[in-house]
Every structure is written in C-alpha cells, then in structure tokens.
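--- STAGE predict ---
source: upstream dedup step, 1 unique chain passed
mode: sequence only
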Amino acid sequence: MVAWLFWARTSNPVEIQKRRQPSATKMSQQSNRPSLTPQFCFNETAFRDFLRISRSTIDDSIIQNLNALVTPAQAGFDPSSTAERQTLPVRKRSIDSEACQGFKDNVLFPSWQTRSDVLNYCAGVALDPQDPDLLLREAETAKERERVVNERLDPYSGRFFPREARTESLANLIRNERGVEGIIRARTWGLVTERCGEVGAGWEEALNRWREKKESP
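--- STAGE serialize ---
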C-alpha cells in the first residue's frame, strides 16, 4: 500500500510534464541579446562566445529540448503495457501541436531573432563603425533587413566598402557566421518539423511569419 502511494505521488502525469518541459524563461535568459556596441563586435572572442552559447542552448540541444515536450499518458500508468514491448523511441514520438507551437514561438524563434539582431548590428559596424544603425534604418522590417544586410555584405555587389582592415575582417567573420547560422537553422528546423508533424514551410518562411505576427500592431 505504501509503495502504491509512493508511485501515485511520483507518477502524476501533470507533475511529470511540468518537470520535463524545458523552461522557456531559463533558455531565453541564456541567449539574451548582449549590449550592442562596436566594441562588442570587434571583440571576436565575446562575439563568438555569444553565438556558441546561444546555439548550444537551443540548436545543439534540439533533440533533448524536443524530447522534453513529449507529454506522458494522461491516463497514468497502465500495468498491461508492460506485457508489450515498446518499440517507438522517445525521439520518434510525435509532440502535441500546442507544445510545439509554444516552443517555437517562445524559445526557438526568439533565440534565432536575437542572433539575427546581433549579426545584423555587427554587419552595420563593419560597414560604418561611426553609424552602425544606418544599415538597419534602411529596412522597416526584420525580413527586409536580412536582404539589405546580405546585399551590403556581398563583396561582389558593388555596395561593399570596408573602411579599414578591422572592418573588412569583421565583415568576413559576419559572412561566415551567417553561413553557419543558415546550416544550423536548417538542421534544427528539419528535426522540429519531423517531430511536430509539419510540412511545407521552410525555416525562413516560418521565422518571417513569426516576425510579421510580432511586428503587426
């Protein structure tokens, strides 16, 4: 009887779900946007550390983050289930659509956007350290900002005018990190869509939809 009471207390599906779900607040805190200054951008160690920590918290741990969203059976433990072999591993089980959407809206997309903001600001520093926000003011939306940054950083576009050696070095770093970012996001989004049962939209389209929803009055 005592053993049964102990199991009942520790096997409550609601409590298990609360313990297993990732904390959006905790993960968001670990990838908070740093203070954006030209000094930060030119400090390659600080710049790379920010990207590394943000990526490791969300993208590199995406399988664990998604596994934590799997909801235990609401009916509790079924003794008869032990008579059958469970062949579907946790990493392959589908996730509740509401939990998936919450993870994307409150954790994944904000993390991606924070990194985009940092990369875009530092791109502006590379182009004009005296007025790094100039490039960002050329675009009204986050989606348009990505296009402007891509164009201005392209050394073959005719609009890339590095002013000194360190700005050219920073521009090269930003280009490389933007390329890495695209690869990481594509991998993460592939796993998210697989587990959440989504088809169709790529990560860029999904992120832009989230941005538009956030930017709409």
